[in-house]
Fold this protein.
Amino acid sequence: MSDVESALLSAVRLVFTLDRDLAEIIGLSMRVSLSAVAVAALIGVPLGGALALLRFPGRKTVIVLLNAFMGLPPVVVGLAVYLMLSRLGPMGVFGLLYSPAAMIIAQSVLVTPIVAALSRQVFVDFWSEYEDQLRSLGAGRGRAILTLAWDARSSLVPPVLAGFGRATAEVGAVMIVGGNIDHVTRVMTTTIALETSKGNLAMAMGLGIVLVLLSLAVNASVFIASEAAAKSGR
Amino acid sequence: MVKLKVWPMLAAATVLVAAIELSTGIHIAHAEDRFILMASTTSTQNSGLFDHLLPRFTAKTGIQVRVVAVGTGQALKIGQRGDADLLLVHDPVSEMMFVRDGYGIDRRDVMYNDFVLIGPSNDPAGATKAKNINAAFRNIAKSGASFVSRGDKSGTHNAEQRIWIDVGINAVKHSGGWYREVGAGMGATLNTTSVMGAYTLTDRATWLSFGNKGELRIVHQGDEQLFNPYGVMLISPKRFPHVKSAAARVFMNWLTSDEGQGAIAEFRIDGQQVFFPNTK
């Protein structure tokens, strides 16, 4: 049997047998990444709006930094968060290292620049379209951000999804701050790394296929939901 | 009208999820749950030894043991930062230094296995014919066949380094040539070795449980130098007052008790015993 066949076979087997351990790992992956994306959206969307509409000193620097930080290496973010959360680090007293909370923090740091930079572009486009209208209504710029965020909500979905994709795909950060502890901080990507290191390549690839399918499922449901919402709004 | 409610609800739900996640995370980390954190090596984890030992211990004591499996060098670093409660590693020299420097206390021998030299079936360097491991290493260097090194300051890497020093060959000087430092765990190193048809030094447990052997086989084994002892030690509560010394000591005592030692001896990979109890 070829490598591809045995990988596909183990993916099919994984999906259909779905044992408790795998369900737990998938559940934790989703919990961690969805939480991180929620945090990133809460910070990133308003930040993107502010960078698009408000004028303040250092604004351009922040924009360049955010664009550059979209490509932050996960392993560097992981290391930085590790040093923060380690007992010898500034937040060491909380004892958060090697917990799901540490993983959420690391992924939030990783994903926030992506959400902020991409949603800034959405705000820029909407602002150029609605500027006159909003100005004539006498809305201040702060108020305008809220209005635009609401009007642009379906356009803000892709930036958030891009962040989600990044979060579920990365392994470097969660490996360092989570430690890949069985039943505690083991997620899909760290399991794939572990199975690869055990030489169980077909199993690892099978898990990889399951991860891609999951990501596909999330994206498809969001797409369908926003289509439905857009339709019922008209 | 329905649609107007969907988005705020969605937003509220995600915020709620995030808040719950973060607070339960903090809660878990703070609660005096009965768990300890052990930094250990990939060989003990990947071989399945912990899957065999830990459920027995937890069933008996109610203490959960969380394992972070890394190389010995990194495990010692985790200990030095106070991020674990105890260590189970395999590099006696660095372990002694760790205790001497005041990071660890009560180091005890737990078990041993041995290192084996792995190489391609056709053995181009003639390591099988070598009369001891030193001669085998010399043959590899002379033949120009590739040797893959962990290169990560793990116990296995340090053991390999000591053999090169013994035979008087500065292998690192040839790094990038026939000597390849991959800076990875044992399993990843074996994957690389398999693809390159090279030689490498590994512990027997990882080798036996490794699923991607390809054309590789054991080409040399059995020398005294290849003895691979594992030690357990607590992180010093004097240095790090937050560590869970009491619970960690319960685990250490169990590991070195007749019961724990018996459980180690019972563990089999493909019918073979791979770890031998060693507590005096």
User: Anything to note?
Assistant: The first helix of chain A runs from residue 3 to 17. The mean pLDDT of chain A is 91. Chain A has one domain: 24-200. The domain at 24-200 of chain A is CATH 1.10.3720.10 (MetI-like fold).
